[in-house]
Amino acid sequence: MSTTSFVTEDEVGIMLAAAGQAPSMHNTQPWRFEINGSVIDVLLDTDRALPAADLSNRFVRVGLGAAAFNLRVAAAMLGHETTLAIDPDPAVPDVVVRIFLADRRVPVAGLASLYGEVSRRFTYRGPMVDRPMSPRLMQLLIEAATSEHAELRWLDDEQRAGLGPIVRSADDRDVHEEDRLHERLRWIGGDRTAEGVPDSVLGPLPARAGAVRDLSAGVDIPHREHAAFEPTPVIAVLATADDDERAWVRAGMALQRVWLTATSYELAASFLNQALEYPALRDQVRTLIGRDAWPQLIIRLGYPTEGSGLTPRRPWNETLDAWR
């Protein structure tokens, strides 16, 4: 490692450890990093893609955007202003985000305040407390998405009812597609120490129909508890005006700003993204929210009834390809 770099080894560790705490589909952690002076590249790790469930790499790029956002948050805490470019070099398509660090000064207002939430954020797959979210908090989360060039659209009762059959159709497809089942077996279930989703954080099975995704669908995991999930979940769709590779990365950045902000208010979140993994069903969701935007993520938010374990993460130094 470099000894005369723009950033110190401690700073590198702080920034890459934060980036590695980002959410990713099935917790594959599909990122690699290269550092060249004051420039940090976030690269796609193709070995961690999900070709059966995510053929276009849309969710992979969402995860890379979330990792880039966490890196910016950690850099801000260290006093570095940041700017970024998405897909900066067509000749090197694996570089998805390039982050430019300014000289170190004082913690950067706004982003730096979210640093404490990076390690607290987790995907919560249990029931939520029957407690309404304040309109002001819902508006804050809308503003968080908007600041990263996305929209957060809260579903009303009619839209939530319309989403139910779409989610159930996706669940039914999930257990009948062999390629997806084999792919999930690689990443979900069992005891895991560095990647994937272990049994311990899958959450209970719903005692009745509920707005929750059972990631173990098609996989027999004994001794799981059952629980009654909230009958009227709070659900939002994160959407973008465009539906291209840059928009997917922006969606990941918006997701992470929304989620870290929500965490700071003791909210928890999980996903119903199975309804977006099939093009025909995604089109139905788009009709549901209005066809002026593209749905990228479906998020269930609320106050958790209990804590939940964190999914494992790789050591940051294992994600660093080069430091010059």
TrEMBL record:
Ranges for domain Nitroreductase: 223-303
Gene Ontology molecular-function annotations: oxidoreductase activity
A Pfam family matched in the record: Nitroreductase
UniProt xrefs under InterPro entries: Nitroreductase (IPR029479), Nitroreductase-like (IPR000415), Nitroreductase/BluB (IPR050627)
Family annotation (NCBIfam families): Rv3131_FMN_oxido
PANTHER family linked: NAD(P)H NITROREDUCTASE RV3131-RELATED, NADPH NITROREDUCTASE
Name by which UniProt lists this protein: Nitroreductase family protein
Source organism of the structure: Kribbella steppae
